[in-house]
Amino acid sequence: MTDRLLINDVTSPPTHPLPGPLIRKVTWIGITVNAVLAVLKLAAGSYGDSQAVMADGVEALLDVFTVILVYAGSRFWTRPPDETHPFGHGRMETLVAVGIGVSLVGAAVGIGWQSIATLHEQHATPPGWIAAAAAIVSIIGKEILYHWTLGIGRRIKSVAVIATAWHYRSDAFSSLPVVAAVTGAILLPSWTFLDHLGAVVVSMFILHAAFKITWPSLKQLIDAGAPAEVRRRIRDIVCANRGVLQVHDIRTRYIGTSIQTDLHVIVDGDLTVREGHEIAREVEARLIRELEDLVDVVVHVEPPEEALPEECLR
Q1: Which DSSP string corresponds to 182-201?
Q2: Domain total in the chain
Q3: Per residue in 15-56, pLDDT tens?
Q4: Which letter does DSSP use for residue 245 in this model?
Q5: pTM score
Q6: Which of 1, 29, 93, 253 fits a 20 to 30 Å CA distance from 141?
Q7: Does one domain contain both 166 and 257?
Q8: Co-location of 183 and 295 in the same domain
């Protein structure tokens, strides 16, 4: 016998019941800030003759693209379940996170290749202080944007928004070697190669951010299960329910940031169908109530002869 419980019957309203408007607010502010920083760094890098700051400006332009991607995707993944997507549209959010990671890889390879190819070239003049100043302004702006975006991403449990926040943090960190490289090239005019090295370091930071964003999302797309501690927590909650003799075959997977699970419980074989049904409903309600990220549960009710010998039977 299989029993399924509608989530809306047992869950309390989320802290932010309308994540869509919040995501759109985050994206518009992100687009504005990144566009301003991109123009500032590209102009300062060109005027100040700094390849590292120009690379930093290209990365800021890429940020504008990724934030637009989040904005467009949020209009899909925040939709409620429907007839064609009964489990919701959460996978769209995961796809957006992967898209952000892939775009970062492309930018990192392009910037790194260009910087290494021109490493031997000498600047006609050393970079100007305006280039270093633009990089410092970028660090401050991106760090502020990171903390604000991360806070909202965690509040609404959005992997794409959190990925965008970490992208901002990687931008702030990658601008640190830019400042060092440009300052070194200014103070030591014969060492203008430092500016090129700074651009290479920027590309490495971008690659690191791409891995942190893409790998967890790829695992979700291939239906990787929840961590062992989450499965143990599910087992403990189910075993604490009245009438459950054993729980086995616990399976989990992610839909966006949410977890879906199905499992088998052993109950007394002499129970009526109605009594078994009530035990299943209690199991489902308690799991969704006690595990914040769990949004969908399917419980299979079985008699004692279906129990697994390696599992403890109460």
Answers
A1: HHHHHHSGGGTHHHHHHHHH
A2: 2
A3: 344 456 777 788 788 888 888 888 888 888 887 777 777 777
A4: -
A5: 0.55
A6: 93
A7: no
A8: no
